[in-house]
Amino acid sequence: MHVQHGTRRSGAAHVTLLTEGTYPHSHGGVSVWCDQLVQGMPDLDFDVIAVTGTGREPVVWDLPPHVHDVLSVPMWGTAPQGRPPRGRARNQLAAAYERFLTALLDPHAEDQFPPALYTMARAAADGTLSPFLRGDRAIAILAAVWNRPGLPVREARPTLHDAVTATALLEHALRPLAAPPPRHGVAHAVSGGVAVLPGLAGLDRYEVPLLLTEHGVYLRERYLGYRTAPYRWPVKAVVLGFFRLLAEETYRRAALITPGNRYNRLWEEEGGADPEAIRTVYNGVDPAAFPPAGPEPGTPTLSWAGRVDPIKDLETLIRAFALVRKEIPEARLRLFGGTPRGGEAYRERCEALAAELGHADAVTFEGRVDDIKDAYAAGNVVMLSSISEGFPFTLIEAMSCGRATVSTDVGGVREAVGDTGLVVPPRDPGRMAAAALELLGDPERRGRMGEAARLRVIEQFTLRQTIDTFRSIYLELPAHARPFVTPAVHGQGLRVAAGSLAG
């Protein structure tokens, strides 16, 4: 779906946001962050290339006039139009795809990944890559590559079904290469992974500088997700090999990388990023938009806000709450936030867990709330139980509202909280419950922590600081880029052990 919105202005600096599963088609922390940048820079022109699920997702944000084109690139909808290549073009693409797969599976051939990827990007622009990957030849090439003597994946005895599955997953993951890439200004990828693909193509073809912001570590989240994915190890080896080499290529080629915390920076340096090209930029909030929340609820209450998703690990939070309720029988747990499409089974699992533990009457799923401040005001203590985060908005918003927090020690959480909240290990219900009980039992300490948390936000994490930093970056990066060209109209570093993910 292609949405045209607003009129371009002569001479305005230009930014193309590259997103996946977020702005402007869904809500959530990264979407809020994108909207803040766009709304805060009305003098700049923005386009958005948004990787989506089916392409039928509606735009859910009110876009200002300086957001012009919004192009939805579906990964799982109808296959892209085009025809398979023929003759010499088919042989060239087949050879490039063989080099691409070899790079994913053979540590000694990883230098073949970039040239193969950019050859495939040109085929995607011509409309031939997706049809080729949906054909039998692509499957046969993979079957031949991973059965070569000496490759570890061969020992797992990959099957034809594995080859069909892995090829299909790669075809979907590579669909963003078919999007018209940015041709001028700055391409700003707001996550790693497949959202970056149009930016890499724009850099390769038109020398458009690529800016990468990672809120969470995309590659780490893929590793976590594929541990329980319903695929055999040969399929995981191919797909995770792609995500790893894509991350490393992105880190090498980006003109600037702006992680949201120092934890992400470690991954980026390990992945080959030049330390001189990394600049930490924290998320910010407007303290006036998140004022002190006011009186606490009379009933001891833990509140949580976010999207209902396995990465938020609500199961650990519910187990911790069960331990809290043994000490404070009247305690309540209120969970605020929507359930993404496809996530209904996880929510049902969490509801079933609360019932199984005997606390269904005290655990409430409130759904989306019109004013997120109400979610923070609803608790004496605000909880964050995630197994992976960047620099979470819900945490600094709750801090700005003057609430004490208990959070898991992931991503940039410790950098955000400092000594104004309690930080516990992830996936540890006992430690989380002990921290919550510690704060619930000490109103004076909660109050002191809440006041210190708001002051910390005002001093270090304001929205104005974030916007001013990115404005200077946007104006600085294109200095040596090519001028705008009117588009033609066309119809080892991050390797993980195999055994840790083979389950």
Describe the structure in your own words.
With 503 residues, the chain is of the alpha/beta class. It folds into 3 domains: 2-80 and 181-282, Glycogen Phosphorylase B (Rossmann fold), CATH 3.40.50; 87-172, no CATH class; 301-460, 3-Layer(aba) Sandwich (Rossmann fold), CATH 3.40.50. Helices cover 42% and strands 12% of the residues. It has 18 helices and 13 strands. It has helices spanning 29-40, 87-105, 113-125, 129-133, 136-145, 160-173, 197-206, 218-227, 233-253, 262-270, 314-327, 344-356, 372-377, 393-400, 413-417, 429-440, 443-460, 463-476; strands at residues 2-4, 14-20, 45-52, 67-74, 186-189, 210-212, 256-257, 301-305, 332-336, 363-367, 381-384, 404-408, 422-424. Strands 1-4-3-2-5-6-7 form a 7-stranded mixed sheet, covered by helices on one side. Strand 5 (186-189), helix 7 (197-206) and strand 6 (210-212) form a beta-alpha-beta unit. The protein is globular and about 75 Å long. Mean pLDDT is 91; it is low at 480-492 and 496-503.
In short:
With 503 residues, the protein is α/β, with parallel strands linked by helices. The chain is 42% helix and 12% strand. The chain folds into three domains: 2-80 and 181-282, 3-Layer(aba) Sandwich (Rossmann fold), CATH 3.40.50; 87-172, no CATH class; 301-460, 3-Layer(aba) Sandwich (Rossmann fold).
